[in-house]
Amino acid sequence: MTPRTPPAAPASRTSPASPAPSAVAPRSAAGPPARGVLALMSACVTLCVALVAATNLATAKLAGSSLHPSATGLLWIVDAYVLVFACLLIPAGALGDRLGRKGALLAGLAVFATGCALSALAPGTGALIAARALTGAGAALVMPATLALALHCAGAERRPHAIAVWTAATGIAGTLGNLGGGLALQFLPWRGLFWSVTPIALLLLALAARRVPRVARHPAPVDPLGTALLAGGFLALLFGIVEGPERGWRSAVVLGALAVAALLLAAFAGHGLRAAHPLVDPRLFAAPGLRAGVLGLAAVFFGLFSLFYVNAQYLQLAKGYSPALTGAAIAPIGLGMLVSARAAVLARRLGPGPLVAAGFLALAAGLILLSLLDRHTPYPAYAALLLLLALGMGLAMPPLSAAVVNALPDGRGGLGAGLGSAAREIGSALGVAVVGTVLAGHHSGGAPGRALAASAGGAGDATAFTDAMSVAFRVVAAVFVVLAVPVLRWLRRAGGTPGFGADAARHG
To answer: What is its main location (predicted)?
Structure first.
């Protein structure tokens, strides 16, 4: 069934009716060249996502470094990247559609590499935070362009496979970030982590410049007001989410940030309804498939990053693992995500609804079972739960990603990738905020990061932490189930998921 887009949002509002290509015409690349581009795009997105997990492992070394960051400074060293990354994803995706996806990718990799090098050279906390923000801006240009280019090069028949492989890369990236970051930090100072990432980004830049084809642009007027309203609204929203666990959800700063976010996002929606060429036309969300994809991706990453946030504390504080062993211990997530590569085939056989429902069931069960862990739980049992969670992600994420990208009109693949990526980042931030708030409220040591830094690994503190962790995962599981219900309802109403049928051929 062809994906339904709302009749009230004519194509002329989101893309020209007959765009004149301003770059070389798209070429068919369904053979080996397409596989090479897909592998390269997967490597690029893996690097951007993996850096988030790797930096989380560096907080202990940063806290004891010559920078002497405060608790708030340490938080912003980690979060500056995520905030800027998330806020610019949708504008960056739209910019790539209009000005060229290859150019956006190359510029993003160059900015990303520069930000990593400046992070390694940072003389103080403020400089490091600024460099991390610059790195996030580069990642925001890279991530939407990778999916749009992968879809363009795949050809009509291979697009579902391309979505599945790209989705698997985003899931495996967290595991690789934990593993690679743990190994690097085991033997190098914190600056070595950023120095090791810089040449990888430069290598990917050189390969992309040589091997990625230019794609026809879809020129349309830029929407600077919409971009500013959306970026400002997301920045205020994520600032409030990040600061909530630290400052308290009733603090004037947090409530003020959330109020500003509501005002700016409401203004963005109003502007989108009136503008001739809006960044995002809000009426597109009348399509149930688009709503299902965006909320579903946010829900999946809400659960995943609640796990990533707790993982390091649980394994190091309760189990006594080293940073390198902690990074390796989460490897089953990556193994389980390999099922994503088969999700396209399964969706054609079973339909997207049952696939997403099965994935959500596995995720909910995994989160509930995580609440039963304690300091005596054997690692094989923990690894089995990671595999269950990864199975759920691998089943649910490809059809949800396809729903977002393919619910939009032709030529807006970059915007679709930006919407999906922004949903992931907002879900991630909410997952960290919710689990962090519950942990801080139930653990006598306060926030888990402070408890880990101050703990000598005593049994009493480890038990207190696992007790708080159990409550946190029960809350996360309950929120996940609440979010999953409308997603499944909207998928049924859509009557099918775009991207897993013949209609996918017209997108990208």
So the answer is: membrane
